[in-house]
Amino acid sequence: GATCAQLLTDAKADIEAQDENGRTALMLAAGKGHTECVHLLVDVSTIIAQRQERKRRRTNDISASRDERR
Length: 70
Hints:
The chain is mostly helical. The protein has three helices and no strands.
């Protein structure tokens, strides 16, 4: 089955969302000592960053491929 981190990323959850005081879920979890939640949010951030990097690389590869055909 899917992990909680995977479910959050698949749902495109905005883990960078901020409350009225500018605090993110990660900041709140860390401030309250919820280490399991902190680890989960860090995992989600890592998954999102990896997906963004793969997408960036694919876009660059497509652009390079188009340039080569010209």
